[in-house]
Amino acid sequence: MAGTSQVVLRPKTTDEVSAILKYCNERKIAVVPQGGNTGLVGGSVPVFDEVVISTQLMNNIISLDDLSGVLVCQAGCVLATLEDHVSAYNLTMPYDLGAKGSCHIGGNIATNAGGLRLLRYGSLHGSVLGLEVVLANGEVLDCLSTLRKDNTGYDLKHLFIGSEGTLGVVTGVSILCPQKPNSVNVAFLGCDSFSRVLDTFKQSKQQLAEILSAFELIDAASMLTVKENLNLSSPIEDYPFYVLIETSGSDGNHDKEKLDRFLEHLMETGIVENGTVATEPTKIQNIWGLRERLAEALMHDGYNYKYDVSLPLSKFYGLVEAMRERAGAATIRVIGYGHVGDGNLHLNLTTSEYRQDVMDLIEPYIYDWVSGCHGSISAEHGLGFKKKDFIYHSKSKSAVSLMKKMKHLMDPNGILNPYKMLPSD
Ligand code: FAD
Ligand code: MLT
Ligand code: ZN
């Protein structure tokens, strides 16, 4: 999504952010907080003439306690840089995204990013210990706790996690980093049907249990996308569905033994048709590339209609089938992939350029379908500019009404990322 703005400010310190917001608030000048600009719903894009406040230069790592695992840093640190830093102390970041090379931790918090290992480490609401946030009037809210336990009053940091820059600008972050696993294995498996994928998930929870760190889906149409558009190749022959399972643990022999037993069981019972296991980093990276590079691969088609929904697992793939039947003939492809382990489907359609007739086939049909299953129309990407008017498909009138009251209380002049997240009504 392209935006327009005449001013981009790149503060280095919290005090500078505070001065900018104080100035803008007094003059009712709208601002857009911007991190790595990798968001997928237009949240960081200026719609009219908003001033962009970029965290690009706020990239200092402040401290790392390698015993407790608590990292404190500025909001503009790039996720991959943080991963490299903590990894030298045998720690890992508690989340991982395909956009890690560009996205900022402040942007991750503002979107409550989920990603590839939420199944293992939980959401940022659990890992983030504290935040420093500059409010609309320039006041600095210091909630930068480094404690794991602190039940003193309302836990205000949670308000800002997933608030998409509408309640304050995150400037500092304290986050808990788990131990870096000593042994990582990846299995890439082929299944004949989606119900076999679900059988595999059930077995993986039972048999891999505490070492399971990711369970991702790629359907055949997705595999074709990375083959055709990025020239990648699959390590196994063609199947209707592929599952990527990652295990992470502390004892290589134990993990490998468990994984071998699990795979033997899947093959013997016919749940899985074929598969391969990777233990060396390059092979692991190549397999992960098939999944992580799907967003990039889709862009090569031209225009990408992107959907990111939560659904009960029994309905998960039904939406892809319904959409393929409805819009398949009008598009280049309709593909489904995502974080099965978290009930999060990424459904994508492409055409060579934007077409309103295709959009009319997709929306609001897709949101009605998801709402009919009591799912969420935005599992992890947020509502931003593109999806804000569909909020009622996932949230009650009373919930949205309270959100608006909170927004008004914290930003009475409406300068913080207007036109985003909340509906225009
Ligand atoms: P931006 O895009 O710059 O901003 C996103 C939103 O946060 C905007 O509303 C912006 O105003 C606000 N914001 C940014 N910084 C601040 C701040 N300091 N204070 C307050 N508000 C702020 N998302 C997932 O959840 N899971 C995935 O697996 C995933 N994979 C991705 C893979 C690719 C290849 C790409 C391109 C994107 C992916 N995303 C994923 C989406 C995106 O990367 C995430 O939403 C990410 O968290 C955005 O971070 P950012 O720094 O780029 O934020
Ligand atoms: C992913 O899981 O790959 C991301 O959320 C991006 C996408 O939806 O394409
Ligand atoms: Zn995702």
TrEMBL record:
Annotated keywords: FAD, Flavoprotein, Oxidoreductase
Domain FAD-binding PCMH-type residues, every copy: 1-180
Domain of life of the source: Eukaryota
Cited PANTHER family: D-2-HYDROXYGLUTARATE DEHYDROGENASE, MITOCHONDRIAL (PTHR43716)
Pfam families linked: FAD-oxidase_C, FAD_binding_4
Record field: catalytic activity: (R)-malate + A = oxaloacetate + AH2
Record EC number: 1.1.99.39
Name of the protein described by the UniProt record: D-2-hydroxyglutarate dehydrogenase, mitochondrial
Reported function: Catalyzes the oxidation of D-2-hydroxyglutarate (D-2-HG) to alpha-ketoglutarate. Also catalyzes the oxidation of other D-2-hydroxyacids, such as D-malate (D-MAL) and D-lactate (D-LAC). Exhibits high activities towards D-2-HG and D-MAL but a very weak activity towards D-LAC.
Organism: Tegillarca granosa (Malaysian cockle)
UniProt signal peptide: none
Listed InterPro entries: FAD-bd_oxidored_4_C, FAD-bd_PCMH, FAD-bd_PCMH-like_sf, FAD-bd_PCMH_sub2, FAD-linked_Oxase-like_C, FAD-oxidored/transferase_4, Oxid_FAD_bind_N, Vanillyl_alc_oxidase_C-sub2
Cofactor or coenzyme needed: FAD
PROSITE patterns: FAD_PCMH
Family as reported in the entry's similarity comment: Belongs to the FAD-binding oxidoreductase/transferase type 4 family.
